Amino acid sequence: MSAVIPVSAPDDALDVLTLLALKIAPRQFDLSYRFSNISIRDQIVRAQMLIQQLHALGAVGADAVKTDPGPSFDLLICGAGAAGLAAALEADRLKLRFILMDTDSQAGVGGVLRSPAARYVSAAMYEWPHSNHADHRYPLRSAAFGAASVGLQLHMTKPLPAAGVGGVLDAAYATEVAGWIQHAANWGSQSHIRSDSCFIRGATLEQRSKERLKQMTIGPASVHAIPLKARPLPALYISTASNTEAHHFRFVIYAMGYAKEKNQYAEGLDCPSAYSNTGFWDCDEVMKPRLGFTPPAGNKHWRPRVAILGSGDGALQDALRCLLKVAHPLDAWNRVIAKSKVAGSVEISQALRELATADMHATMAATWSSSPTIYKRLDRRFALVARKLLNSRKVGSAVSKAVLKMLRKDVDEVMLVTHSGHFSKAYALNRFLLILLHRILRREAANGRPRLILRSGPVNQFSVNGTPPGPRGGTLQFASGPKTFDLIIVRGGLKTDTENAFPHRVGLSGRDTGRAGLGRVPLPIRPPLL
Question: For residue 13, is pLDDT > 90?
């Protein structure tokens, strides 16, 4: 007997990839949870695509008043970082009614874009090796095709520190943000019906609202099996100080950042409590002379030794920071090709084409497979390109000399310890620079140059001497014996195993595993032109 195919549900049109990848429950979306593409541009694109798609399908705005009557606002946007601000500005451009809320009491963009850490951000830097990697504006001009504008745009000429990008956004959208804040004046006074989009600072959802939202995620079916508009949202109570208002919304958008970092030196093994690790977006001392260490008395030539535990992009970035005197990875590449005879050479053009092709195929393969060998093969392809480039009679010597000129002289050794002997998911720029650097330092290991050692784990034990807040380094026990480092950096990835790992704590379970797969799908350079 053949299976009976049910009649399509009324909101089947809402089951498009943009919405499916972000849906966590009926009428609830999350712009960050379980995604592997998490650059600032990725966050902005996800936010803009979501708002555009909801509007195009009539789920919000004037059309929704007829088909989905009742709610006084289209959207509740939780979080005013880059993703939340992009969602609010896109909603504002499309004349939707929304409330933007953030627990921070300060105005302007929040999240990591307030971090004073020496981490550089660009909308296009990690498009490398593609030609648009040097256009740091958003949307990328080369991909706009004369399209209509989007709500949030970035006008930058070079990568900037994270806080600098936050400043650019604050300055560009100060008028809009100030207007939304003004609309939230007298929050909690029931003297008038609130009708304008507003931004509420220092705000929280009351616990009863969180519980009712969480209940909407509970059920025997997969998240994807539940229609997006299966049931309406409850009234949501938003509090600031001692004042509270309740409103009805068509959709809730969580834009509250990513999971917390793991503080584990090996799977299931927490770092010693006395060890002081610095989070990726926290201020560290890596860019200071000798990584911030004071040499022992009478030993002015002392240089620190570093171990970095991790195989992803964060670990690669920190290895480059410990080895090179550059502001950011793209700065390093620009110095490699600084001479016109190098930049304009056939060898460089060929290398970029091969790298782009290999990275594209690996990204596509990783989207459709969980094979652990994909990135191992990518490392090998990148190493072949690096070898050909360095062996070139025309540009090999110039490339090598340019890299050697960038080396720090105040670091003795950097050991990058990976679990499986190869790098995992990382941007092509960071992956290639580190592979190129490793090959050069193997050839030129002399004259006080730092050593770069790539080592496969596992680390069996991690010990330190001291009490919290304790040392930045310690002793790592390998199968071959112990080794002591002045600085140990742990980049073990993000927590995904507990409900409390996520800022919004919406209580998702294993039912959402399909989103982990959707989260690997690469995003377009900019939203589709609707």
Answer: no
